[in-house]
Fold this sequence. Notes:
Blueprint: E1 5-10, H1 14-25, E2 30-36, H2 40-48, E3 53-56, H3 59-64, H4 66-69, E4 81-85, H5 90-99, E5 103-106, H6 111-122, H7 130-157, H8 160-170, H9 175-182, H10 186-200, H11 208-213
Parallel strand pairs: 1-2, 1-3, 3-4, 4-5
Helix pairs in contact: 9-10
Amino acid sequence: MGRTVSVFILSDNRLFRESLGRILSKRSDLKVASSQGFSEKACEEALHSPADVILLDSLDCLCSRASDLEDPEKSRKRMRILLVAMDEDEQVFLRAIRAGAMGFVPKDASALDLVTAVRSVARGEAVCPPKFCKFLFDCVASQAKEPAERDAKLSLVLTRRERQLVPMIERGLTNKEIAQQLNLSEQTIKNHIHRILQKIGVDSRMHIFAAVNHAPN
Length: 217
């Protein structure tokens, strides 16, 4: 890689920390910047450290810091988290990704697999067990279908103009802002929204999008 990759190890398992430390220290391009057990202070230190990769074995710790990882100022960390999974369940894998992990290594991975994963995550590359690839593709495909399914539901009960208003309402636009974009009067928009509320069966514009998304197929 042309440079030394520093790794911050977080785990309550001392044997795990020491084993990883020995594996990494044998590579000339890798070094352990810190090795600590889980604590609020340790997690905070890891998120603010200059280490290239955060290596951990607890999904609970990862999920507890998810809000920090969504902070734009800390978004670089999202590209540097590698989870050595003790549980290889598909849902655990998905939770890890949603919580900010960039790499996911199964517990039975070899030392070479782990080292390769650390290097990949340090380069900003995603690491995913081959057996979970199809699951990940299926999840993405399922999410891609949601807008089409929503539009199908809308077309059954709303007019073209009313369907046009739904995403604008979702974005939080006021009646005046919608009217300006569509070159209509504010009263006309108000009337349209009133009819949408009646058709969908909700009493607030805030509930329109949720009602549409959870409508039965």
